[in-house]
Amino acid sequence: MESNNQENLAGSLSGQDADESNLKLPYTQPHMELVQTGKIPSPKPFVKWAGGKRQLVNLLRCHSPSSFNCYVEPFVGGGAFLFSMLPEKAVISDVNPELINAYKVIRDDVEKLIRSLKRHRNEESYFYKVRAKHPVTMSTVQRASRFIFLNKTCFNGLYRENSKGQFNVPFGRYVNPNTVDEENLRAVSAYLNRAQLQILHQDYQQTVSNAQKGDFVYFDPPYYPISATASFTRYAKNDFNARNQEELAQAFHDLAGRGCQAMLSNSNTDFIKKLYREFSIIEIEATRFINCKAERRGKELVEILVKSY
To answer: Which of 20, 142, 147 is nearest to 96 (CA)?
Structure first.
């Protein structure tokens, strides 16, 4: 897959003050090597996200292919797996416009974003005032600032939209939320600039349509509910229903047939396992305290990993 990253990199660094040149790193090594040797900080997810994979990244890496050309993640969310892998060439996407805008602003205008985040207040009346603002009336930096502030101060860090696409999670009443993690925002920005990485606002079908033989595609979609009361399938204005799960399974089959290396996370249900019965399925414990040689600890296996390789 081709990338317009060099153009984006030049644009994001132009006009910076001398003390804002942290992204101009004098290194040519892969980003992962720089992190492992302590030359630069390791990036982490900059938002909390439903179904985030922070506790599962070691397991995911154990089951990842040993080599691949381009990393593709069509449901990027908070990016926990992306930031653990730090691939040199990647394509990430999501249907949530505010999330994708935040990624782009962190890449292109991280210092402006940090200054904007510092202006927010952890007060209930202020929270609802910010929540009521419509993103289309704001600049890209203001939108990203609003998105991150609401995510860090809303109840349980839950991103949820109603049928009109309006964020509707209540105030979280946290004493001291970390709304401005400057070091991590700069670390994320550094990686997004150094890698050959495309950030796209589109659905997964568009994203994987250009995947090539040898690419590694990781799907982390909204999970199919394990019960009638366990459903959370709306983080954008449209639900991800059973028909969508079937279409996703077909896309997974198509990628495998094209020689792509595909991996998928989902709920451990008969419906999902039937869709992927031709592939390798690994059951995962609910506790998520797990490694490559996971052992049962008496917990219910509520998730699965599906691999085409």
So the answer is: 147
Q: Which two tokens stand for residue 242?
A: 């059973």
List the structure tokens of 256. 């495998």
pLDDT exceeds cutoff 80 at 301: no
- For residue 240, being part of any structural domain is answered with yes
Q: What would the two tokens of residue 16 be? A: 């910076």
Q: Which amino acid is at 121?
A: R
Q: How many domains does the chain have?
A: 1
3-state secondary structure of 176: coil
Pull the structure tokens for residue 80.
Answer: 């926990």
Q: Is 2 helix (H, G, I), strand (E, B) or coil?
A: coil
195: nearest Cα among 62, 29, 61:
29
We report the CATH number of the domain holding residue 175 as 3.40.50.150
pLDDT in tens, 167-218: 999 999 999 999 999 999 999 999 999 999 999 999 999 999 999 999 999 9
